[in-house]
Amino acid sequence: MRHDPGLLMPTSTYVIAAGGTAGHVVPALAVADELRASEPSARIVFVGGRRAEQELVSAAGYELRTIAVEGISRSNPLKAVRAGAKAVAGVRAASSILAALRPDAVMGGGGYVAGTVGIAAVLRRVPLVLTEADSHLGLANRALAPFAKRVCLAFPIPGRDGARYRVTGRPVPPPFTDRAAARAKYGLGERETMVLVFGGSLGARSINQAAVEAYRDAPFRVLHAAGERDIAKLASPGEHYRLEAFITPFGEALAAADLVVARSGGSIFEVAAHGRPAILIPYPHATGDHQTSNARWMAGAGAAVIIPDAELTPERLRSETGKILGDPARLLGMARSSAELARPHAAEDVAGELLAAADGRKPRH
User: Fold this and answer.
1) Which end of the chain lies in a sparser environment, N or C, as judged by fewer CB atoms within 10 Å?
2) Architecture of 5-173+344-359 per CATH?
């Protein structure tokens, strides 16, 4: 969806700080679309860095202002000092942007830039709404939460259940609902099965390597988004196996698939929105091991099977896939459980919190 903010005189201005990966930017864009739907004349400006947001935000037709930020290293003191200096400069740059835009509210949508812009919003006394995609609050959100009008959580978090917190789920784009059209796009026959493999915008090396070997002689079709980093090192084992760096639009791939093999970051909400069963391999080095918690949330509902990254082998992946696909009743039950976890109104709910923060209206439920 493309927007032309110049068609209407803006009545309100909202700043959305999100960047680094598609996992932060795509949910933020879903919220922006809901804001535009609720208030067509609103001016919506993204603040980010120079990674995934540069392409995604402009492609969606929104303004983007960039600032330089990076994560603070916990193992390299020199890099930590450099990142700290950039953070100070980033707050100044963000404050200048907010001074020029005079937004009615600011949303922290994830990535290092969200903390920087959030600090600037607090210092300038601009209403702040935070979003947390993981099963624990990140460092920046923990620091900023006491100053936020609302903290929108993807998952219930113990101790974060007061009036300031609301479990909205993770905003995702509307699911692609025409499964027949999606399957036709990928040339799937009526009785063909397809497994979708992906590992985030950068890919997941352990999954990439295991999947190609596990499904070398698979009796089903495979669609594998390997990421730009690893795609040149991989080779399709046959006509049944389609390798891509990225898949766009991603919703069509989810709609066409029968089973998903993936990491367990925020993308599990897109998986649930499409009602897909999953084999999840949590990234073992995620902050606070939040991907394991995310995977347990989905597995606990009967929608997924977990394979720890340290236990991932082609043989184990092939076995778990065969067990699920070989039991149609189980596959259907997992799909239903996945759909029950979906929160289709998450983007609308977060947008409502921004509107409420801006003008004092009660949040829409």
Assistant:
1) C
2) 3-Layer(aba) Sandwich (3.40)
